Every structure is written in structure tokens, then in C-alpha cells.
Amino acid sequence: MLEKGMKQYMNKEIEEQKEYIKKVERLNAGKSLKYTIITMGCQLNENDSEKISGMAENMGYIRTDKLENANLVIFNTCCVRENAEERLFGKVGELKNLKEKNNMIIAVGGCMMQEKNMAEKIKKSYPQVDLIFGTHTLHKLPEDIYNILENRKKIQDILDIDGEVYEGLPIVRDSKVQASITIMYGCNNFCSYCIVPYVRGRERSRRPADIIEEAKEVAKQGYKEIMLLGQNVNSYLRNEMELIKEGKLVDKDGDYKEIDSFAKLLRELDKIEGIERIRFISPHPKDFTDDVIEAIRDCDKICKFVHLPLQSGSTNMLKIMNRRYTKEDYLNLVEKMRKMIPDIKFSTDIIVGFAGETEEDFEETLDVVKKVGFEQVFMFIYSRRVGTPGDKMQNQIPEDIKHKRFDRLKKLVEEQIAEKSKEIVDTMQKVLVEGFSKGNEEMLTGRTESNKVVVFKGDENLINTIVELEIVENHLWYFVGKVV
Ligand code: SAH
Ligand code: SF4
Ligand code: F3S
Questions:
Q1: Yes or no: is domain 2-157 CATH 3.40.50.12160?
Q2: If you placed Cys at 395, which of 229, 313, 356, 437 could pair as Cys (CB 3.0 to 4.6 Å)?
Q3: Residue 195 in contact with ligand 2 by CB distance below 6 A
């Protein structure tokens, strides 16, 4: 019999952790201990937190959303922009008094802990923290917790070298409708503003069979939508294939015989019965090969909605950012995809005010936004990250200019989205129903293929199905639909 969310195939290391899970469970038996996780990062971090939940629940902890009731508090941190730091320190500070009352274990993990100065700061200034762990040691949580409980000593468990790909960790998912599946870890791109490659290590892809197995499992559990995750999903298996070519890796078990690329993985996942929608984030424009576009075109389940991070519309800035495409490359790619898949839609990420960005550079960004017409734009003000090339550049942009540019971009995006929203009214949209609307319990809520929220009156039985709705009202951030 498998425990909650536990898989059959496992690395040796995970088998060891399973023993620790049992040991902790025995120590915790009959105590009704509670845990809570505070996740501060991207969807990859959220997926890691689901694995932390899986381990915690198998160790006998029960989930609570109330910090003051928790006996185990885990922070899963992010460091991609600077605002997360103050939030973390504030929250950890608040726990000082609660700690004794609840006999609380406080753990801080995730990307920020891979930054040496941050781990040091926590260690020095926040003695209430029992465990500091990094992105490559997440799977060792059971062993670390066991050692804390048994020996009452503080632990720092951070690895600088890349982690392996661990299979078989238990998982308790947050959503009942969309299942996130990490397909690869790390990033090799080193965009000059970005800290992720330093805290997540080099790219490592999971074996196709493991991903397919997980997708089949979530389909069996009733999930209709899967979200494939990675920092650069369209370079899935690229490293592995290069190593094989160079003779440094031997595919002795035929792991990559049938599936050796992201496009082939997509086609295989599309065949899984029960899964009705497939999404993925993030692809990199430089790696968006035709076989991936063809897979999106040919596979009914893959959403015709692609997140294509732009970062900047200026070829000059893109070069400084080390993005390895030009403004024209990006626009040509969008054009090509629109030709091959006429109803395709896009969302994007944009950074405003990176070092050296001139007024002309910024206007190039506005120009691409105008030309492409994104459904959604995630906009960020450039935040200097210690250890990245961007931080060392001399020509940093003053904060007030960054903010003014950000506001101009935001205004353009909002105008465009308001205009686009009008176009959806009176059309039919396929909506995956997530549950009751939080604002109005009598209404159901769900999302269209292009991730737009639609609320509508309907029967409870429609939850976790895809319904075709007529869109009747447009409220900028959500739409009202009608069953016809
Ligand atoms: N791997 C993904 C996204 C990683 S981080 C990709 O390449 O698209 C998510 C987003 O955060 C990035 O797309 C970028 O827009 C933003 N970002 C990364 N570093 C940043 C920084 N130093 N300052 C501001 N925004 C940043
Ligand atoms: Fe960061 Fe660039 Fe890697 Fe994305 S592709 S995680 S922006 S380095
Ligand atoms: Fe994600 Fe933040 Fe880490 S964006 S990968 S949680 S630095």
C-alpha cells in the first residue's frame, strides 16, 4: 500500500527519506501537530511547496492556514526581485514569540537560501530558525526534521552543486483542477539581470517516462489540466541529448529512444486519456523551434495560448540582457506562429529600466506591445541582484525614471487589454470550471483557454468539467458567462 501521494518508482536517496518520514511520523503520533507553508516564489516554487506538503503530511502533520496554530512553519523563498526579503524577515520576526508556545519548528528554504549572504543573515539575526535548506536539498526535509526533533539542534542543509533529479517524492497538490508538473530544473541561460541560474543550478530534465507516469496519475485522480513547468521548457532534454552525442551519457535503458525533445513530449502527453488541457511555462523565444509550434497546432489539448517572455523590445537591450534574440526575431516568431495557428494568443513578461535602457529602447518595448497585442503582460521594474552581471553595470537607471516608464507601459497594456476584452463579449468560450466564485457563492468560476476568469450561474456538477459558455458581460478583470 502506498502512502498519501507516494509513487512506486524512487531514487535510493528518496527511499532513505521515506524511512525518515516513518521515523518522524512515529515521533509525532497522537500529537495532532500542524504545519503551514508560506510560498513566496514562482510556480516552480509552488510545485516544490506541494512536495513539502506531501512530505509534511506523510510525517503526520496536518495542514493549517493559521500561522499561530502551526507547530511546523516552512518558508519557501524567492529572490528574483528584492521585495521578498523584507517580507521574509518581517514574518520570521513575528514568529519569535509564538515559537515557544507551540514548540514550533521554523524552517526557511528555497531560492533565497542559495544566496550565501541571505542564509548567513538568517542564521545570525534570527536564532528562532531551526532549519535552513536550499533548492537542491528540499527532498531531505524528513531527515532534517528528524534530526531537529531528536537532537534539538539547528541545521543548515544547503548544497552549492546542482542537485540530482529526484523521483518519487510524495506530493499534495493545492489545486483540484490544474496539476503542475515540473519537467526540468535549473537554467543555463544566464540572462544578465537574473539570479535564477545561480540559485537553481544547471538545466536537468526529468525522464520522459517519469513525466508521463505523473501525468497519467493526475489524470486518474481526476485532474483535467496539466501545467508543465521549467525555466526554459523548450530546451527540455537538450543537455541530455548533447551529452549522448558527445558520448558522455549512454542511454542504456532507452529512456530517450521514443521521446528526445519537448515537442515529442507534448505529443505524447496529448494522448493521455482524461487530460483535456495542457499548458506550459516558460518557453524561451530563442528555443521556439518549428517542431514545438507544430505540436501546439496539431494537439487539441494544448492551449492555443503561449506565454512568450519578451523582457525588452529593444534589440540593443536584448543583447545586453543576453537574451540571444532581436526585436525582429521575436516579432517574426509571433508572426510565424500566427500563420501556423491562426487563433493563437500570447502573454509575456517585460522588465522596465534595466541598466542602460534609453528612452528609445523603452519605446521599442512599447512598439512590440502595440504590435503583438498580448492578452496579459507581467511587468517588472528591474531589481538589481547581487552576483549577476546586471548589478555590476555602471549605467543604472534612476528609480523615478524606472517608475515613470513602468506607469507608461502599464497604461498602454491596460488600454489594450480593455479593448481586447470587448472582443470576447458575445463569443463562445470553453471554460474549465474550478469551483464556486469567492466573491459570489451562487456563481461558479473558471478559466478560458487564454486564462481569462469567467463567472456564471450553473450546476455544481459542472465543477472540474469544461463547459462552453456564451460571454455576456465584460468587467475588465473577469467576464460573466451564460450556459446556452
Ligand atoms: N525563466 C523564465 C522566467 C523567470 S523569472 C523566463 O525566462 O521567462 C520570471 C520573470 O521575472 C522574468 O521573466 C523576468 O521578467 C522577471 N525578472 C527576472 N529577474 C528580474 C530582475 N532582476 N528584476 C526584475 N524582474 C526580473
Ligand atoms: Fe532567468 Fe533568463 Fe533563465 Fe529565465 S531564462 S530563469 S530570465 S536566466
Ligand atoms: Fe522561482 Fe523566485 Fe526561485 S522566481 S525559481 S522562486 S528565485
A1: yes
A2: 356
A3: no
Q: Is 45 in the pocket of ligand 3 (CB under 6 A)?
A: yes
Averaged pLDDT, 385-412: 98
From the CA of 350, which ligand is nearest?
1
- Domain ranges (residues) in the chain: 2-157, 175-303, 336-422, 428-483
Q: Which fold has domain 428-483?
A: OB fold (Dihydrolipoamide Acetyltransferase, E2P) (2.40.50)
- Identify the CATH number of the domain defined by range 175-303: 3.30.750.210
- For the Cβ of 194 lying below 6 angstroms from any atom of ligand 2, the answer is yes
What pLDDT does residue 3 have?
A: 46
Identical fold, 175-303 and 428-483: no
The residue whose grid cell reads 532534517 is: 144
Pocket probe for ligand 2: among 114, 195, 232, 322, the residue whose CB has the most ligand atoms within 8 Å is: 232
CATH topology of domain 336-422: Transcription Regulator spoIIAA (3.30.750)
For atom 1 of ligand 1, the residue with the nearest CA is 231
Per-residue pLDDT tens over the stretch 122-146: 999 999 999 999 999 999 999 999 9
Q: What pLDDT score does 10 carry?
A: 58
Expressed in angstroms and rounded, the spacing between residue 283 Cα and the centre of ligand 2 is 10
pTM of the model: 0.96
